[in-house]
Amino acid sequence: MRVWNEYCAGGCEPALPACAQCAPGHAKAAVSAVGNTDPCTQCPRHTFQETAGRTACDACHVTRHTLEGGRTDRHECRCVAGWAHEPGVEACRACTPGHFKAALGDFNCSVCAVGSFAEL
C-alpha cells in the first residue's frame, strides 16, 4: 500500500504496517523500530502470559515449571519432581519423608516401597 501526502514531492511513500498486540503466550519488551518489523517473542519455558499486548512474560512459581514455551495460562505451570499439587494454592508442597514424586505434574507424592527411602 502507498500513502500520498503533501511531502511526497510528486511521489508516494510506503505505508507502515499497523501495530498489532502480541498474542497471549508472547511478549515484546520494546517499541518496534520504524516499519513495525520487530516480532513478538514466545514466552520461554517456565513462564506464561495470559493477556495480549504485554511487555513481559510472567514466571511460574519456583515450585512449578512448564514443558514448553508459549504457555497462555498459569495453570499450565506444573509441580516439579519432589513437590505435590496443593488445591487452591499457587505453590506446590514438598513431599514428606517416606514419599517421592519423580516427574513433573500436578499429582500427589507416592509412598516409598518397604525397605527404600527418598532423599530430601
SSE topology sketch:
Elements: E1 2-3, E2 13-14, E3 26-27, E4 41-42, E5 47-48, E6 58-59, E7 64-65, E8 78-79, E9 83-84, E10 93-94, E11 99-100, E12 110-111
Report on the structure:
The chain has 120 residues and is an all-beta fold. It folds into two domains: 13-59, no CATH class; 77-120, Tumor Necrosis Factor Receptor, subunit A, domain 2, CATH 2.10.50. 0% of the residues lie in helices and 20% in strands. The protein has no helices and twelve strands. Strands 1-2 form a two-stranded antiparallel ribbon. The protein has a two-stranded antiparallel sheet with strand order 3-4. It is rod-shaped and about 75 Å long. The termini are far apart. Mean pLDDT is 85; it is low at 1-5.
Brief account:
By secondary structure, the chain is mainly beta. The protein has strands at 2-3, 13-14, 26-27, 41-42, 47-48, 58-59, 64-65, 78-79, 83-84, 93-94, 99-100, 110-111.
